[in-house]
C-alpha cells in the first residue's frame, strides 16, 4: 500500500485541502479540509502571509495523517490568484521553511483547464450534454472562467474578472453606503459580462454546466452522482429571496441554514443568473466535480488522457489567437511541421523535454501575430500581445517562454544586451534561446511564404547540421534568409547549419 498512495495538498486563499489517493485507480482513500481562512483584506483575495500560522498548523496535521498512511509521495499545489511573482516567492519560501514542503503555484488558467479536463474525461454525461453547444462556467474566488464546447470539442474560453470573494467584498463595501447594494452589484456584473454577449452562441440546443458552486451542488446533485439538473423556477425563487437581505435568513424551502451561512451564495447566484440570461441555455446543470478533482486526476498523477485533453485546449487557444490576428495559416503550418521535426531529430543536442516541444508548437502558431499591428518590428508586437493574452492550461512561465520565443524568432537575438532576455530567470533563458534558434532557422526556410520545400532531411556531421531541402522551385530567397538567420543556431548550439538544395517534389 505504501508505494501505491499519493498525497495531494491544495492551498487556496480561503481553505487548504488534503486528498490521499490510490494509484492508478484514483480511488480516494481520505479527503479532509481545513476550516475557512480570513480573506479579502486590503482588496486582495490571496492573503497567504496573514494566514500563515493557520496554514502551517493545518499542514502539520496533514503530515501526521499522511504518515499514518505511510505515504512518501506528497504533491503540494497552491492557487496563484491575485498575487504577484515576488509575493508568491516569499510565501513559497516561508512554507518551505515552516513545513519542509515545496509548493507549486498554479494560475487560474491551469486550474480551470485541469478541472474542465476532468469533466470532459470523467463525467459520463459529458458526451451527450456537449452534443450541440455546451458552456462550462467555473466560478473562482477572484475570477471565473467560461469555456465553450461544440460537438464535444473545446473551442474557446474567456477569463472573467468576477469571482465569489471579489463580489462578496464589493457587496460588503457597498452596504456601508447604500441600503440595497444588490442592484448596483447586478449592474457591475452586467458591465463585466456585457462584452461577451456578441461572442456567445445562442441556440435552441445549448447546455450550461456550473462548476465550483458548492451550495447549488449540494441542493441539486444526488448522492453518488456527479451532476444534477437545476430547476430553473426554484433557482429564480431562491435568487429573488437572496436579493432581499432579511429573506436570506428565513429558513424556508428555498434557503436552508447551511446555504444562508455561505457568504458566497449570493455572488454565485448573481453570476450564474446573469450568465444564464446571456447564454439562454435550454438546460442548466451543476456539477460537484471540483478543482481538487482536476488536480488529483491530471497534474498529480500525470494522467495521459487528462494531459492530452489539456494540451488540445492549449493548441485550440493558440489557433484562436492566430485566427484573431489574421496570421498566414499555410506558413504557420509549414513552420510548425518542420520545427517539430527539428526538435525531434535534434534531441541529443537540445536535451529539452516534450513539454518544450508543445511550447515550440504553440510558438510556431502565433509568432507572427504582431504583423496585425505593424510588419516592422512585428516580433516585438507578437511578444506583448502574447503577454497580454495568456493561454488556458499554461503556467505563467510557459506563457512567458512562448512570448519570448516569438520575440526572438526573427531578427533580435536573446543576448545579455536584450533587456527582456537579461531579466528572465536563469532556468528559462537557455530553453528560450534553444527554441528561438530552432524556430528562426525553420522560419527562414519559408521566407517567400510559398512553401516551396516539400521535404527536409537533417544530418549532424563534423560539427555541422546538414539540412537537405527538397524543392521543385528555386530557393534563392530562402537561402539568403537562411544565411542571415542561422547564426543564432550556431551561437546557441555551437553547430553550424548548412543548407543544401535537392531538386524534386
From TrEMBL:
Question: What range(s) does the Ppx/GppA phosphatase C-terminal domain occupy?
Answer: 316-467
- Spell out the Pfam families in the cross-references: Ppx-GppA_III
InterPro entries the UniProt entry points to: GppA/Ppx_hydrolase, Ppx_GppA_C
- SUPFAM superfamilies per the UniProt record, alphabetical: HD-domain/PDEase-like
Q: Which family does it belong to?
A: Belongs to the GppA/Ppx family.
Question: What's the protein here called?
Answer: Exopolyphosphatase
The major lineage groups are:
Bacteria, Bacillati, Bacillota, Bacilli, Lactobacillales
